[in-house]
Design brief:
The complex is a heterodimer of chains A (about 280) and B (about 290). Chain A is an alpha/beta fold and about 280 residues long. Chain A has ten helices and eight strands. By secondary structure, chain B is an alpha/beta fold. The longest helix of chain B is centred in the first third of the chain and has 17 residues. Classes of the chains: A alpha/beta (about 280), B alpha/beta (about 290). The structure holds guanosine-5'-triphosphate (2 copies) and magnesium ion (2 copies).
């Protein structure tokens, strides 16, 4: 990259441009550039190829240090899906349902967004396409009530995996963040160990605000993982590199399109390659 | 906040009579960092900082202001000027109906903004018709029809059609017959790099000749805003931008990026999920927010 044949200011500038434009943010970027600056000072044998490898390894390490298996094997496993408006929560749930159906799991979808126009209809269409059950109420109803009924029913019916859809909400809306806390408590009432996983859905086109989203959502409902959506666009989702310094959250899946099969498992090497491509 | 940081920077370098290359160096770095953290695009920041440097150099320090305050004022004014100086409105056609086409990436807030704009136009004694031209997203038509009921504006839809261009064309004809003076096309979210979907939008525009083509952009968009806006603008000739979700704490640097790359005005901002949460764009407020 850059076509430079030595580790010099031109190389540092090229790297900085790549990382910033990938949304890694100025701080994470300067940390990474500083890393190779000091390596270059230590050894004259440190060439551009070694510099690139050092950066990639450092990014890869950040993104993989928190990886551990998902905790969804004790039925009914409850996965709570949260995030700000329009990031792809509902669509991601449909994709996850398809994925786990293929493993033979019996799925229940929960229409926890009772507020937005067309939200319940949207998830209902997905449940029909998937041929899986859905628990829903009337628009405008209390989401906690629906979720309580759903998790209770899932346990009674022997459902393997419950995917709980929630309304989009900005992390600055404290009353809506409280509502999310209540939804989580209601799930715990039925199954104390639940939710077994809580995923924050992040849109890859999002810039530095993702850091604030993760922090505030995590304070209210402890997050266990991330899903990064819309990576089929041109955004790189580099903010997850900066996020790794603040919150140790494994990236579980990547959304790569609008179809029900457009969900990839997170593969660190491929992700890092894409970041630098 | 940037203003505090700059005040500190200038305090360190002392009160000089003139702003010079040396004493500006750190201040310009502060500005650059603040803009990058606010999600302004890397290349746009370069160009903006160069512009500020040029204006600032040689400016003699106003004895009534400390250099830090003066510099902040200069940066702020430069931002406001780039953002368009003053708010711009919808340009209505001399011969109705005025056709407004809403477009943008998936999830940016097009459908909600269509409902909000319809409500706003209704209050201004217009007779809008909303068109459900998203035939792809599950329950997209339900969503717009529900909004239509909530604001009291009719929605044209065709659940059996798989042709967005045809839906828009027929809606346009209906508007002429039924005396609607504004037709609002809510289109499906799409990627700027999806040639088939971008061509669909060009076809819609070719058939109904919109007077306003509004790109709906999420306020939390990062570096990619330049690429997205640039592509939509080059293929469609945008007439304006709507920036949504400004009720959150995203700094909104994408506003500067989008303005820089397209030269088009931000006409409205979305400040909430409810249908009354639409405001005209104020460059001063946006500048303050980005620099904060
Ligand atoms: N290109 C692309 N589009 C996606 C992806 N994931 C979701 N979308 C689209 O993004 C838009 C929003 O998706 P939703 O699933 O409704 O998002 P949401 O977070 O549930 O939205 P709210 O409930 O309104 O907050 C839809 O048009 C989806 O088709 C993805 O990975 N790639
Ligand atoms: N807080 C807030 N939410 C908004 C605003 N504008 C839209 N939303 C929310 O953002 C989400 C996406 O809005 P939509 O109108 O469905 O977005 P869209 O662009 O039509 O999505 P697609 O058709 O799938 O591309 C919904 O949850 C909206 O309620 C806003 O200004 N503030
Ligand atoms: Mg949803
Ligand atoms: Mg829509």
């Amino acid at each position: 990259f850059g076509g430079t044949d030595q580790v010099d200011d031109e190389l540092f500038d090229d790297l900085e441009a790549i990382l910033i434009q990938a949304d890694c943010g100025p701080r994470a970027t300067s940390d990474l550039v500083q890393l190779i600056r000091s390596r270059a000072e230590e050894s004259s044998a440190f060439d551009p190829e070694a510099a690139m490898k050092a950066i990639r390894d450092s990014v890869r390490e950040r993104l993989t240090r928190s990886l551990k298996p998902m905790n969804i094997d004790t039925p009914p496993a409850v996965v709570l899906i949260v995030g700000v408006n329009g990031v792809g929560k509902t669509t991601t749930i449909a994709k996850m349902a398809r994925l786990f159906q293929a493993y033979g799991k019996r799925i229940m979808l929960v229409a926890g967004d009772t507020f937005r126009a067309g939200a319940i209809e949207q998830l209902t269409i997905w449940s029909q396409r998937l041929g899986c059950e859905i628990m829903k109420g009337k628009a405008g109803g209390d989401p906690s009530a629906i979720v309580f009924d759903a998790v209770s029913a899932a346990r009674a019916r022997g459902v393997d995996l419950v995917l709980v859809d929630t309304a989009g909400r900005l992390q600055t809306q404290s009353n809506l963040m409280d509502e999310l806390g209540k939804i989580r408590r209601v799930i715990q009432k039925v199954i104390p160990e639940a939710p077994h996983e809580t995923f924050l859905i992040l849109d890859a086109t999002t810039g530095q605000n993702a850091l604030s989203q993760a922090k505030v959502f995590n304070d209210m409902v402890p997050l266990s993982g991330l899903v990064l959506t819309k990576l089929d666009g041109t955004a790189k989702g580099g903010v997850v590199v900066a996020l790794a310094d603040h919150l140790e959250l494994p990236i579980r899946f990547l959304g790569v399109g609008e179809g029900v099969d457009d969900l990839d498992n997170f593969r660190p090497d491929e992700f890092v390659d894409a970041l630098f491509s | 906040a940037l203003s505090d940081k700059l005040r500190e920077t200038f305090r360190k370098i002392g009160g000089y009579g003139t702003l010079t290359e040396e004493n500006l160096q750190e201040a310009l770095r502060d500005v650059r960092l603040a803009l990058l953290e606010a999600d302004v695009n890397f290349k746009v920041v370069k160009s903006f900082v160069a512009g500020v440097k040029e204006k600032a150099l040689g400016q003699s320090v106003n004895v009534r202001l400390n250099p830090g305050q003066q510099f902040v004022g200069l940066v702020h004014d430069e931002l406001v000027e780039i953002m368009g100086g003053q708010a711009e409105k919808i340009h209505f056609a001399s011969q109705p109906p005025t056709v407004i086409m809403m477009c943008g990436l998936q999830g940016s807030g097009k459908t909600t903004s269509t409902g909000k704009l319809a409500k706003h136009l209704l209050a201004q004694k217009h007779r809008p018709l909303m068109v459900a031209a998203d035939i792809k997203r599950p329950a997209a038509i339900d969503q717009l029809e529900t909004l239509g009921k909530q604001v009291g504006v009719p929605v044209f839809s065709d659940r059996s059609s798989t042709d967005a261009v045809d839906i828009c064309r027929r809606a346009h004809q209906l508007a002429l017959m039924k005396d609607h003076d504004v037709v609002m096309l809510d289109t499906a979210g799409r990627l700027h790099i999806d040639d088939e979907m971008m061509t669909e939008l060009e076809d819609v525009a070719a058939h109904v000749k919109p007077h306003e083509v509004l790109l709906v952009v999420d306020a939390m968009t990062g570096q990619d805003a330049v690429r997205v806006a640039g592509e939509f603008d080059s293929r469609l000739a945008l007439s304006g931008i709507v920036m949504t979700k400004l009720d959150g704490d995203a700094r909104g640097g994408a506003a500067l990026s989008v303005r820089h790359v397209t030269g088009k005005p931000i006409k409205f901002i979305g400040v909430g999920e409810k249908l009354d949460a639409l405001q005209p764009f104020h460059p001063q407020r946006m500048a303050g927010r980005i620099l904060d």
